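<instruction>
Derive structure tokens from the sequence

<record> Sequence and structure tokens follow
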Amino acid sequence: MEPYLIILFRTILIYVLIVLIFRLMGKREIGELSILDLVVFIMIAEIAVVAIEDYRDPILPTLFPMFILLSIQVLLAFLSLKSKKMRDFIEGEPTFIIKNGEIDEAAMKSQRYNFDDLLIQLREKNIRNIADVEFAILETSGKLSVFEKEKEKSSITIPLIMDGIIQESNLSTIGKTNLWLRQQLKEKGYTDIKNISFCSYQDGEFYIDLIDQ
């Protein structure tokens, strides 16, 4: 019976300590956690598991790393408030994915961010057409901030070409063929599909973005 009482005591104690530590670290939404926050949370969780499972060992040496992590986090948070360079180093900087209506493929690659990610986050913000977007900024939290052009919203974005590859299933969805797409692009001066990073056809108009050279 005694081991169970020890585990119960340790569980309650560690629960209270973790709540206290997270309160001291400041209030942030889960979706807005920085990489540093996430690393600290994972390490604290691992330490907590060890402290509960190894109930025969003294608890204070096990909990000591938690307070070290808390001290490091508070110190770095203070430095981040005082220095933008430190803040950028710790949390990174926002990245323009779309600027002035044009997709920045280099920025997407640097963030390991693909067109599927972009379209998913645009749909989550009820953006029906990628051509309606003037600026899209990937925040340090991973969220996408979107600023639309001053125009009426149109139909939903259905990509016909992504990363130089024709999306045959999407062509079928809009009742068009591979040959039709190639002819339309050729008339507009786009002869090499592999040079097109993204292409969609909506409301009778093409949105075409070339791969950065």
In short: The mean pLDDT is 84. The longest strand covers residues 196-202. The chain is about 50% helix and 15% strand. Helices lie at 2-25, 35-53, 59-82, 84-91, 105-110, 115-124, 168-173, 178-187.
